[in-house]
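SEQUENCE-TO-STRUCTURE ENTRY
===========================
Question of interest: how does this chain fold, as expressed in backbone structure tokens?
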Amino acid sequence: MRKRRGVHAELLSILSNALGQMPSGTGGQLSLRCSEGTWDVVSGTGQTGAALRQQDLHPGYCLTRPLLAIASGILVDRFDLVLSEPIGLVELLDGVTVLLDCSVEDVLSHQVGLTGPTAFEWRALDWPDLVAAVASVTSTGEPSYSEVMSGLAIEAIIQRHTGVDATDWVARQVLEPLSLSADICMDPALLLRARAGAELQVPVGGDRSTRYPLLSELLAPHLQRTRLAFGAWITARGLADLYWRWITSLERSELTPGLPRPETSRSLLAARPGFHDPSQGHDAQYSAGGLVVDLARAGVCTTATPRAFGHPGGFSTSFGLADLDPPISIGAYLNGIIDNFDDLAAVRSEVASQCLDLVR
């Protein structure tokens, strides 16, 4: 390994260059962790034109998939669950009860085509219509990415075994022990207070002459629907820390409060078969716990090792990544929207590869 000098300045340059390539990006956060150091940088402005800060939260959505995997692993450890056994009868939402004959790992790894309301519909539909959409959940039996329904299924399993609200349970059992509550938030009341303090940031669309922030993300009804299934609000440093603490526990084979047993984590990170995802329009491969294990095909990174895993952030250039060879984690939030997959993948991959090159 090279001696670590000037990493902070290099990271800032990587972030600034990436923002310069994006048609609408105005700011971002970038965090890097390895055995030799911890670095956090921030650049640019948020949707109001004020300087972006490290503590500013942004909607994580599928970036917080590691929380679903970790929560599932803790359930396996505490209640002797088997990842490959059928889920059975669960209550998904407001009395909507369904029989799921697929397994936890089938749901997490998107192998069963669990359909239902999309992330957009979760934001836009009136609550009775949303409940009705959840009630119509089906399984196609064919692999396809599940935006919200897979999370609702995991929530239902948590509720069934613990008797408490799944989002609250994960906050207490995962985020608090890992000291991540300030950087990964699913509590609507806390988010409303953060909004009042101008600590919530949203993606920015359009081009450089017609940038528009997605201010609907900040509406109270939308914030009040925040929960584990829909994804937390996060900072880049919180995302990097979540991955870092997980892989550190794995590498040391240590039992860590807030994480599954290392052997359970290894099961969750075992690769499932790849497939062409019709909902995403490209090939994908996930682990049993729902983490992307073919980062190149997912447009996250082309230079990570076969022991890497992570997750992209949908239409935004945000991503989280962990590589075990050697242990490195990255959390990245760039607030610009790119709706072309190839362009999106190019920006993500460049940022990820340059970060890895700094510390390998």
In short: The first strand starts at residue 27 and ends at 34. The chain has a mean pLDDT of 92. The two ends are 6 Å apart (CA to CA).
